[in-house]
Design a protein that fits this description.
Blueprint (H helix, E strand, L loop, with lengths): L15 H8 L5 E5 L5 H14 L10 E5 L2 H21 L4 H10 L4 E3 H12 L10 E2 L2 H21 L4 H10 L6 H14 L5 H10 L15 H27 L8 H18 L3 H8 L17 H26 L3 H36 L1 E2 L1 H12 E3 L5 E3 L1 H9 L2 E4 L7 H10 L9 E5 L13 H10 L9 E5 L1 E2 L4 H14 L16 E2 L10 E7 L12 H29 L1 E4 L4 E4 L5 E5 L5 H10 L4 E2 L10 H14 L4 H9 L7 H10 L5 H10 L7 H23 L2 H12 L1 H7 L3 H19 L6 H13 L17 E5 H4 L4 E6 L15 E4 L3 E4 L1 E3 L4 E3 L2 H26 L2 E11 L2 H8 L12 H5 L5 H8 L6 H4 L13 E7 L12 H12 L10 H8 L14 E3 H8 L32 H14 L8 H13 L5 H6 L2 H9 L1 H8 L2 E13 H5 L8 E14 L2 E8 L10 H28 L3 E8 L4 E5 L2
Parallel strand pairs: 1-9, 1-10, 2-3, 2-8, 4-5, 8-9, 11-12, 13-24, 13-25, 16-18, 16-19, 17-18, 19-24, 26-28, 29-30
Antiparallel strand pairs: 6-7, 14-15, 20-21, 22-23, 27-28, 28-29, 30-31
Helix pairs in contact: 1-2, 2-3, 3-4, 5-15, 6-14, 7-14, 8-9, 8-14, 9-14, 10-11, 10-13, 10-32, 11-12, 15-17, 19-35, 20-21, 22-23, 24-25, 26-27, 27-29, 28-29, 39-46
C-alpha cells in the first residue's frame, strides 16, 4: 500500500476492510463489495473523512462523485450534508466546514450523464453546438430516427446504378419491406455508440471480413472463442465416456464394452490435443474419427439398467461430437473464408449506411438544437479528449483543468459502466494504477445490465490486475461481510455459487474472497432456505415438445400452480411467522409489505395477480404492458385514425361498433349492402344518402349524427392542436364519462387521461400533427413497446410486491420468494439472424440473395457461442442478485413438468468430488433449476430428491428444506355456484316460465324503504350557543329583523389590509369593551386616567389593536362604576368575570318539539359578570347596543324590545349558574353602556 492506514478508533463500527476502504489513498483503489456489505456507507464515510481531515482537508467540490441514478446522488448529498452539520455542531468555529455546507449544493455529486451535461454547457463553444440545446425525450428521438432513415433510404433508392445498396437490402430484408434493414442500422448505430470511437468500431467490423488464405483461419480474432467452446464440448463428451467406462467396471455393468469406451476416449483425447494446433489439423481429425461397434451384453450377468445408462452416455457423447462436426467441420475451412469474402462488400455497405445515418441524424439534431442521451457522453468525450493520428486519445486542456480540480474521482456501481464512460473517467482522473486517484466501488456479481451495454469485464480486468497489498499497481479491497441477511441465506447462496460460478462459465471464480460472510447479528433461529418443486407430472407434456398450444397451456398451468403455492405460503407467514427488528431488538408479526415475489420477467404477472387477488392477498406490481390492449384506449385510437383518414375499414368499423356510435353487427352488415365494393367509408356515405328503410332508421340516425361530428372533428384536427382535439372528443362523445361508469372505471379514465398526457408530451417535441402521432404509436406497437397502466405506490401501503429481479437491485426485503425458476432462459438474442459483439463486430448468416439460400457463417457460429457463455454468466449474476435480496427468509419456487425425468438428469453430478461442477454441465443449463438442483444433489438435505445411495455429500453449513409438491395440492378451488342466478338464465333460454317476483322481494323493499326512527334529531343541532338560542326565540321586530333585508352583495376580493379603512364593526367594539371590563382592577373605583392607562397597556400586550383601543369609550366605563350596581360590584366579596360554561338541557324544551323527548342539547355561553353577595348571586350582562341612534323615543321606547330580546338569554344564564354553583341567583341585570341604563329582568 502506498500510504499507511491510520489506526481504527476504538469505538468504530467499521470492519478492518471497510476502514481500509475509507482511509487508503494515493493510488487507484477498487473496492469489490459483496451484496449488503455497506458499500455506499463506506463511500460516504470516505468523502466525509476527506473533508474533515485535519492535516490535509479537501473542499467537497474537489471530489468528483459519480453514481448510477439520480436518487442515489440525492441520497449521497443528503448523507454528506447531515455529516457536515454534525461535525459543525462539535466544531462550530470551523470556517472550513461552513464553507463545505455552502459548496455542497454545487458539488459534483451526480450521475455521469449529469456530469457530461455540465461539461457540455460549460464548454459548448469547443464543439460547435448551440448553447441553448435541450435533451430530446425518447419519443422525439425515435420519430426523428424514423424520418432520417426513411429519407436516407429514399435517397439511396433514387441513385442510379446503386447495385450494392440493392444487394444489401435484399440480403438483410425479406421480400415485403426493408424494415429489417432499418432495424439493423438502428441497432448497429446504438451499439457503436457504446464504443468511445463509433466510426473506428464500424471500420473494425468490416476488417473482420478481410479473410485471406486457409492458414489465416487461425488468425481470425474470434477463433479463440470458437476453440474454447469446442474444448468445452469435447471435454463434456470425454466426461460422459469416462462415466460410461466407470459403469462398465461395476459389478453387473457392461464389462465387454469397456474396450469400446477406451477407444472412444482415445478419440476425444486426440481431438482435444488437435485443438491446440492449427484449424486445418483439427478439421482433418474431426472428419476421421469413428466410434467402434458396441460389443454385445446379453444374459443375466448384466444389469439391464447399468447397460442402458452406459449406452445412453455413449450415445450422448457421440451426438455431441456429431453436432460439432456438423456445425464446424462439415465444410472445408476455405469454404468458410470464401463466404466471408463474399459477404465483405455487403458488410462494408452496411457500415457506410450506418455512418451516413449517424451523420444525417446528427445534422437534424443540430438543426433542431437537441441532443439525445448517447450524445451527452460523446460530446463530453470530444471536449475532454484529443485524438492522435493512431486513433488513441489524450487529455485536452479542459481535461487537464479537471484533473487539477479533482483530487479524487469516486465511482459507485463501477461494474455497470461502459467503454465510453470508462474513457471519460480516465480523462478527468490523474495517473493510473499505482499513481492514480480513482476510487471505484462495485460488485461484479451484481452486474446485470449487459443488455444496456454495461461492460463487467472492465471491473474484472481491474480486479485481476490490482493487488490486495497495492504493490506497484492499484489497491484491491474485498468487502465480503454482509450486514443484511441471516447466516442461513448467505450459506445457501455460497453453497450454490461455489458450485456453479467459475472463470470459464460465469466469468469469475467464486472463491473465498467472493464468498459472503455473515455480519448482521440475528438471534439464533432455525431458518433453512426453502425449495419448493411443484411436480406437474404431465406425461403428455414432454420437455422438448414444440406444439405451441400445448406449451401455452402448460405455461399457464405452471404460473397458476406457483401462484397458488405463493398464496398459501404468504397466508401462513402472515398468520404464524415473525420477523426480527434489529433497531428494537424484538420480533414482530410479518406484514404484507415485508414480502416480495421476484421473477426474471413479468410474463406471469397477470396470473399471479389474479390468483393472489382471489386469495384475498393485496398485491402491487408495475406492469409495463396492457395499455394499448385496453378497450377504451384502442377505441379512442381507432377514432383518431378515422379522423386522420376515414378510408381505413377496421378502425371505422371499431368506432361504429363501439359505444360512441352504438351499432351492432346487423347494422354494420346493412350498411355494407348499400355499397358492396370499395372502402367501407364509401358504403357509409351511400347509406346516409339513400332513403332509409323503416328497420334502418335508428342506424341511419346514429350514423348521420356521427358523420356530422366527424366532419367537425376533421376540421379541428387540421387547425388545432392534438391534445385539445382529444379532450374535445372526450367531451363530444361523452366517452370519458361512459368509461368511468364501467367496472374498473377509475383505471379506464386514468388510461384515457394518459393518452391525453402522451399527446401533450408529443406536442412538446418538435413534431406536430395527428398523422405523425398515430404513426409514432404504430411504431411503438410494431416494436412491441407498450405503456404500462402505471399506478403510484407509497412505501406505507401494506401490500405484497411483485417485481423483476432487475427492479429489485439495491433493495432488501425480510421475505423473498424467487418464483418461475424453471422458466427457460431468454435465448432470443443468441438465436437472432444478426449478432453484435463489442470486441469482434458484426456477424450474420451467409446469405445469397439471388439463389435465396442462407446457412451459418463462421463468425455467426463463433459469436453465438461467445454470446451464450456471456448470457449464462449474466443469468448467474441475476440469480445472485435475487438470492441476496432476502434478509430473513428465502423461498425458491419452480414448477417441473416431469420431475422424475428431470431428477435423473440433475442427479448426474451427485457422484462428483470437487466443488465446482464440470464446465459443460453448467454451460448446458437452460433454467435456474438446472443450476440449483444439481448443486443440492450433493448436500445432506438433498436426500428428499436423490436418496442416500452413491451420493457425494459436500461439507457445508447451509440448511435447506426441500419439498416436492404434487399439483393435485393446488387443484382448482371450486367457487360456490350461484344456483338462483344460473337457474333463471337456463329457464329463459329454454323458454320456460320464470317467477315474476324474486324470493328476496320483501327483503329488498324493506331495506330500500328504511327510515331512521329518530329523524327529527338529525335536523337539530346537538350543541348550541346562548346567542343562537336568543336569535331562535326572538320575535323579528323592525329594530332587529334581518329577514326582509336583502343580502348585501359581498365584493369578491378584499383589499389588502394596509389599504382598508380602519373602521371597526359594532360587534368588534362590543368585544373590545368586554375585554377591558374583564381586565379593570376592582381594588379602587376606576377613573378616566386609570382606564386610559389600562387600555394603553393592553395595546402594548397585544390584547387590543389600535383601532379597538380608539373605539373604547372610557367615560362610559367610568360612569358604570358610579352607578349603584357598579358600586355593588366593587363592594362584593367575590366577582367572576368572563366565565365560560356548558350546560345540558332537554332538547324538547329548547326546540319546543315533543318528538325530541329523549334527546339533550349542550348549551354553551359566557357570563360577563357574577357578583357573590351574602344572600345570593347577582348576574350582570353588559351590552353595547346602539339605543339612542335606533329608538327615537330613547330608552323608554327601547325597554320592552330589549327586555324581550334578552330575557331568554338571562334565564338560561341563571339556570346554569344555579345548577353549576348550587347557589341562588337573586337578581339579574342588563347594563347598556349607551346612555348608562340599567334594566332588571325578573326571573
Amino acid at each position: 500500500m502506498k500510504t499507511d492506514i491510520p489506526d481504527k478508533p476504538t469505538n468504530a463500527v467499521w470492519t478492518d476492510d471497510q476502514w481500509k476502504a475509507v482511509m487508503a489513498k494515493g493510488q487507484d483503489i477498487l473496492v469489490a463489495a459483496a451484496a449488503g456489505s455497506g458499500k455506499t456507507t463506506v463511500l460516504v464515510e470516505r468523502i466525509i473523512q476527506k473533508i474533515l481531515d485535519e492535516h490535509d482537508p479537501l473542499d467537497i467540490d474537489e471530489l468528483l462523485i459519480v453514481t448510477f441514478t439520480n436518487a442515489a446522488a440525492a441520497e449521497m448529498r443528503h448523507r454528506i450534508g447531515k455529516a457536515i452539520e454534525e461535525a459543525i455542531s462539535s466544531r462550530p468555529d470551523s470556517h472550513h466546514l461552513r464553507k463545505q455546507l455552502s459548496l455542497l449544493n454545487k458539488a459534483p455529486i451526480s450521475t455521469l450523464h449529469a456530469f457530461c451535461l455540465e461539461v457540455i454547457r460549460k464548454y459548448y463553444y469547443l464543439i460547435d453546438i448551440d448553447p441553448g440545446f435541450r435533451i430530446a425525450d425518447d419519443t422525439e428521438a425515435e420519430l426523428l430516427r424514423d424520418e432520417v432513415l426513411d429519407d436516407l433510404f429514399e435517397t439511396e433508392y433514387a441513385k442510379a446504378g446503386n447495385d450494392l445498396f440493392y444487394r444489401t437490402v435484399d440480403t438483410f430484408s425479406n421480400d415485403r419491406s426493408d424494415d429489417e434493414l432499418q432495424h439493423l442500422i438502428r441497432k448497429l448505430y446504438d451499439f457503436s455508440r457504446s464504443h468511445p470511437d463509433p466510426s473506428a468500431w464500424l471500420d473494425k467490423m468490416v476488417e473482420l471480413y478481410d479473410a485471406g488464405d486457409v492458414e489465416e483461419v487461425d488468425s481470425l480474432p474470434f477463433m479463440a472463442a470458437v476453440k474454447a467452446d469446442i474444448h468445452l464440448q469435447l471435454q463434456a463428451a470425454k466426461d460422459m465416456l469416462e462415466e460410461a467406462y466407470g459403469l462398465a467396471l461395476e459389478p453387473g455393468g457392461p464389462a465387454p464394452r469397456a474396450e469400446n469406451y477406451l477407444n472412444d476416449m482415445k478419440i476425444t483425447d486426440r481431438l482435444l490435443a488437435a485443438i491446440h494446433g492449427p484449424w486445418q489439423g483439427l478439421y482433418e481429425e474431426m472428419n476421421a474419427w469413428q466410434f467402434t461397434r458396441a460389443k454385445t451384453c446379453k444374459g443375466d450377468a448384466y444389469e439391464a439398467e447399468l447397460v442402458k445408462a452406459a449406452d445412453d452416455l455413449r450415445k450422448s457423447a457421440k451426438k455431441t461430437l456429431e453436432g460439432l462436426k456438423k456445425d464446424f467441420f462439415s465444410r472445408k475451412p476455405a469454404s468458410f473464408l470464401k463466404d466471408m469474402q463474399e459477404m465483405r462488400p455487403v458488410i462494408a455497405e452496411l457500415r457506410t449506411l450506418v455512418k451516413k445515418f449517424a451523420e444525417a441524424y446528427g445534422a437534424v439534431k443540430a438543426e433542431k438544437g437537441i441532443v439525445d442521451f448517447s450524445d451527452l457522453e460523446h460530446f463530453c468525450l470530444d471536449i475532454l479528449a484529443e485524438k492522435n493520428e493512431d486513433g488513441s486519445l489524450t487529455p485536452s486542456e479542459v481535461a487537464k483543468a479537471y484533473q487539477q480540480q479533482f483530487k479524487e474521482v469516486l465511482i459507485d456501481e463501477f461494474q455497470d459502466v461502459n467503454m465510453v464512460q470508462e474513457t471519460i473517467m480516465n480523462l478527468v482522473a490523474k495517473g493510473a494504477g499505482f499513481d492514480g486517484n480513482r476510487f471505484m466501488v462495485g460488485d461484479v456479481k451484481q452486474s446485470i445490465y449487459r443488455f444496456r451495454l454495461a461492460e463487467p469485464n472492465l471491473f474484472l480486468k481491474k480486479y485481476r490486475d490490482f493487488d490486495p497489498e497495492g504493490r506497484d499497481t492499484g489497491l484491491r479491497i474485498d468487502l465480503s461481510k454482509n450486514f443484511r441477511s441471516r447466516k442461513e441465506i448467505l450459506d445457501g447462496t455460497n453453497f450454490i455459487f461455489k458450485q456453479i460460478m467459475g472463470p470459464k462459465v460465469g466469468e469469475m471464480a467464486y472463491d473465498s474472497q467472493a464468498a459472503l460472510v455473515a455480519g448482521a447479528s440475528y438471534p439464533e433461529r432455525d431458518h433453512p432456505v426453502k425449495v419448493a418443486l411443484i411436480d406437474q407430472a404431465d406425461e403428455a407434456i414432454e420437455e422438448d415438445i414444440s406444439d405451441e398450444e400445448t406449451l401455452d397451456r402448460a405455461e399457464l398451468e405452471q404460473s397458476q400452480l406457483e401462484a397458488r403455492y405463493l398464496a398459501r405460503e404468504i397466508k401462513k407467514l402472515i398468520d404464524e411467522e415473525q420477523v426480527y427488528n434489529p433497531k428494537t431488538g424484538t420480533f414482530r408479526p410479518i406484514r404484507y409489505k415485508d414480502i416480495v415475489i421476484l421473477m426474471r420477467s413479468m410474463a406471469w404477472a397477470p396470473t399471479i395477480m389474479e390468483e393472489l387477488k382471489q386469495a384475498g392477498i393485496p398485491l402491487y406490481t408495475e406492469l409495463s404492458t396492457g395499455y394499448f390492449d385496453a378497450t377504451e384506449v384502442s377505441i379512442m385510437l381507432s377514432l383518431l385514425k378515422v379522423i386522420d383518414n376515414p378510408y381505413q375499414d377496421i378502425p371505422l368499423a371499431v368506432v361504429l361498433r363501439s359505444p360512441i356510435v352504438g351499432l351492432d353487427e346487423e347494422a354494420l352488415a346493412l350498411i355494407r349492402i348499400h355499397e358492396k365494393r370499395g372502402p367501407y367509408y364509401e358504403a357509409v356515405k351511400k347509406f346516409i344518402a339513400d332513403r332509409p328503410d323503416p328497420e334502418e332508421e335508428e342506424a341511419h340516425e346514429k350514423v348521420s349524427r356521427f358523420m356530422e361530428k366527424l366532419s367537425v372533428w376533421r376540421s379541428v384536427a387540421r387547425q388545432g392542436d392534438l391534445s385539445s382535439l382529444i379532450w374535445q372528443l372526450y367531451r363530444d362523445t361523452q366517452f370519458y364519462d361512459f368509461a368511468g361508469g364501467l367496472p374498473g372505471g377509475k383505471q379506464r379514465q386514468a388510461n384515457l387521461r394518459a393518452l391525453y398526457d402522451r399527446a401533450r408530451q408529443y406536442e412538446e417535441t418538435s413534431f406536430r400533427g395527428l398523422f405523425r402521432f398515430l404513426r409514432f404509436i404504430e411504431r411503438m406497437q410494431e416494436r412491441g413497446d407498450d405503456l404500462g397502466t402505471a399506478r403510484a405506490l407509497s412505501e406505507q401501503e401494506d401490500v405484497v410486491r411483485l417485481m423483476t429481479i432487475h427492479a429489485s437491485k439495491g433493495l432488501e426485503f425480510p421475505v423473498v420468494f424467487v418464483a418461475g425458476l424453471n422458466r427457460k432462459f431468454n435465448m432470443r438474442d443468441i438465436s437472432q439472424a444478426f449478432l453484435l459483439d463489442k470486441d469482434f463486430g458484426f456477424a450474420s448468416k451467409y446469405i445469397h440473395p439471388e439463389k435465396r439460400i442462407t446457412y451459418p457463417s463462421l463468425p455467426q457460429l463463433a459469436f453465438k457461442r461467445k454470446k451464450k457463455l456471456e448470457m449464462l454468466a449474466e443469468e448467474m449474476r441475476v440469480l445472485y442478485v435475487a438470492l441476496t435480496r432476502a434478509k430473513e427468509k428465502l423461498y425458491l419456487v419452480g414448477t417441473v413438468k416431469n420431475l422424475g425425468k428431470r431428477l435423473e438428469k440433475w442427479g448426474k453430478t451427485r457422484r462428483q468430488e470437487g466443488w465446482l461442477m464440470p464446465d459443460h454441465v453448467r454451460a448446458a443449463a437452460g433454467t435456474y433449476l438446472d443450476w440449483i438442483i444439481p448443486s443440492l444433489s450433493r448436500h445432506a438435505d438433498g436426500t428428499v430428491l436423490f436418496g442416500d445411495d452413491g451420493r457425494v455429500v459436500l461439507d457445508d453449513p447451509s440448511k435447506w428444506q426441500i419439498a416436492v409438491l404434487p399439483k393435485e395440492q393446488f387443484a382448482d378451488i371450486q367457487e360456490p355456484e350461484q344456483v338462483g342466478e344460473v337457474d333463471w338464465q337456463h329457464q329463459v333460454k329454454a323458454g320456460l316460465p320464470v317467477a315474476a317476483e324474486s324470493a328476496y322481494k320483501a327483503q329488498v323493499f324493506e331495506r330500500l324503504s328504511f327510515r331512521y326512527s329518530n329523524e327529527p334529531a338529525t335536523f337539530r343541532r346537538a350543541k348550541q350557543s346562548v346567542s343562537e338560542l336568543k336569535r331562535m326565540h326572538e320575535e323579528h321586530d323592525e329594530t332587529n329583523g334581518t329577514r326582509f333585508i336583502p343580502n348585501a352583495e359581498k365584493h369578491i376580493f378584499d383589499r389588502p389590509r394596509f389599504m382598508q379603512e380602519k373602521s371597526i364593526t359594532p360587534a368588534e367594539r362590543g368585544t373590545a369593551m368586554h375585554m377591558v371590563m374583564q381586565h379593570i382592577p376592582f381594588d379602587a373605583p376606576p377613573t378616566y386616567a386609570s382606564v386610559e392607562a389600562l387600555v394603553e397597556e393592553m395595546v402594548k400586550q397585544e390584547l387590543l389593536t389600535e383601532e379597538q383601543a380608539d373605539a373604547i369609550a372610557a367615560e362610559q366605563l367610568v360612569r358604570f362604576f358610579e352607578t349603584d350596581i357598579g358600586r355593588r360590584i366593587l363592594a362584593a366579596g367575590r366577582v367572576m368575570r368572563e366565565m365560560p360554561f356548558s350546560l345540558s338541557v332537554p332538547a324538547a324544551e329548547i326546540y319546543r318539539d315533543a318528538s325530541l323527548a329523549e334527546e339533550r342539547v349542550l348549551i354553551q355561553g359566557i357570563f360577563d359578570c357574577v357578583a357573590e353577595e351574602k344572600d345570593g348571586l347577582v348576574l350582570l350582562d353588559f351590552k353595547t347596543d346602539n339605543i339612542h341612534g335606533r329608538f327615537k323615543g330613547g330608552f323608554e321606547e327601547a325597554e320592552p324590545v330589549l327586555r324581550k330580546r334578552y330575557e331568554v338569554q338571562l334565564a338560561l344564564y341563571s339556570r346554569a349558574l344555579e345548577t353549576i354553583l348550587k347557589k341562588k341567583v337573586k337578581a339579574q341585570y342588563l347594563y347598556f353602556f349607551d346612555g348608562g341604563h340599567l334594566l332588571q329582568i325578573q326571573s
